[in-house]
């Protein structure tokens, strides 16, 4: 079958190649891919691809061979899937519990845009807690996760301030219910009960400084590729956890944000800054 495989060449990060057909394990269905989507994290992995790496975590298509253990969905079902990889291809093996049957009104292209960004948004808001009447600050709002968070939070009654670099990138967010659009975190007025930060760099300390007392900040990405520092302002420095006098900084591993742990519920109102999963009290 044909698949997109990494080249390691920044000018042409993937190319079409002939690869072996997937061999589904027990509990995995074989899906004919009709559409797939591309996540920012996946594009980062293309820069230094590991040998044999096959990208593709978000797909939509039809089941051509159901899971051998009999788990549905059955043959011919329209599905949206979230495999661990290999989805940028004609066929992919997907664990049956990572498949969902979408409503007929959702096209394959729309469905393929759902899994990683949609699940991340849902989990962010579950971790953040009820948003009704609360002030939410969202960076990277024009991205995939940002659009879903905006729509879900606004519909749940949040007053959401969306940060986008450009004006034109904000138009859809207003339609989805964002209360306010700004183009720099430093323009955010007042304090926020919930801060959802995914661009890194200076945005993280600036956003942290706007967190209300007993508020929740979740840092879940670094789209800017600039390391996020926390020891910026005097106020920030008081909030930064220290060990033996040294400030503990976030690791750049997105899984550490606790959003990728299928099935395990991340701790609420706590931020894991250095990967030990011990609750921090400084928030
Ligand atoms: N922890 C997890 O489990 C998890 C899961 C999914 C995604 N993520 C991470 O969350 C972030 C958002 O994911 P996504 O799928 O929504 O990505 P995306 O669609 O690429 O959106 C990222 C947004 O960040 C903004 N941005 C701000 N400064 C930027 C810069 N210097 N360079 C590039 N973009 C910049 C861009 O919006 P403007 O240009 O309009 O500002 C862009 O729309 C990514 O870092 C991703 O890796 C984490």
Automatic annotation (TrEMBL):
A Pfam family annotated for this chain is ADH_zinc_N
Cited InterPro entries: ADH-like_C (IPR013149), ADH-like_N (IPR013154), ER (IPR020843), GroES-like_sf (IPR011032), NAD(P)-bd_dom_sf (IPR036291)
- The ranges of region (Disordered) come to 228-283
Q: Which residues form a coiled coil?
A: none
In what ranges is there compositional bias, type Basic residues? 235-250, 262-283
Renumbered to this chain, the Basic and acidic residues biased-composition regions fall at 251-261
The record ties this protein, via Gene3D superfamilies, to: Medium-chain alcohol dehydrogenases, catalytic domain, NAD(P)-binding Rossmann-like Domain
User: Which keywords does the record carry?
Assistant: NADP, Oxidoreductase
Protein name as it appears in the record: Zinc-binding dehydrogenase
């Amino acid at each position: 079958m044909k698949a997109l495989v990494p080249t390691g060449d920044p000018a042409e990060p993937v190319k079409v190649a002939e690869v072996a057909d997937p061999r589904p394990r027990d509990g995995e269905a074989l899906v004919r891919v009709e559409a797939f989507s591309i996540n920012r994290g996946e594009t980062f992995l293309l820069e230094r691809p590991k040998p044999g790496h096959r990208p593709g975590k978000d797909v939509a298509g039809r089941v051509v061979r159901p899971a051998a253990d009999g788990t549905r969905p059955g043959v011919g079902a329209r599905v949206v899937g979230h495999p661990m990889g290999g989805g940028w291809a004609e066929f992919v093996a997907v664990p049956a519990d990572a498949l969902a049957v979408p409503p007929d009104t959702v096209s394959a292209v729309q469905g393929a845009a759902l899994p990683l960004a949609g699940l991340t948004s849902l989990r962010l808001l579950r971790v953040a807690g009820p948003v009704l009447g609360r002030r939410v600050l969202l960076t990277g709002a024009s991205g995939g996760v940002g659009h879903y968070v905006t729509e879900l939070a606004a519909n749940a009654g949040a007053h959401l301030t969306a940060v986008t670099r450009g004006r034109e990138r904000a138009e859809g967010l207003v339609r989805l219910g964002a209360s306010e659009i700004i183009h720099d975190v430093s323009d955010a007025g007042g304090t926020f009960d919930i801060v959802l930060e995914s661009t890194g760099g200076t945005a993280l300390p600036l956003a942290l400084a706007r967190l209300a007392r007993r508020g929740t900040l979740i840092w879940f990405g670094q789209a800017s590729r600039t390391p996020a520092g926390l020891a910026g302002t005097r106020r920030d420095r008081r909030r930064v956890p220290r060990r033996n006098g040294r400030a503990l900084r976030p690791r750049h591993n997105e899984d550490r944000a606790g959003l990728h742990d299928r099935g395990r519920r991340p701790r609420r109102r706590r931020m894991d800054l250095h990967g030990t999963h011990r609750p921090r009290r400084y928030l």
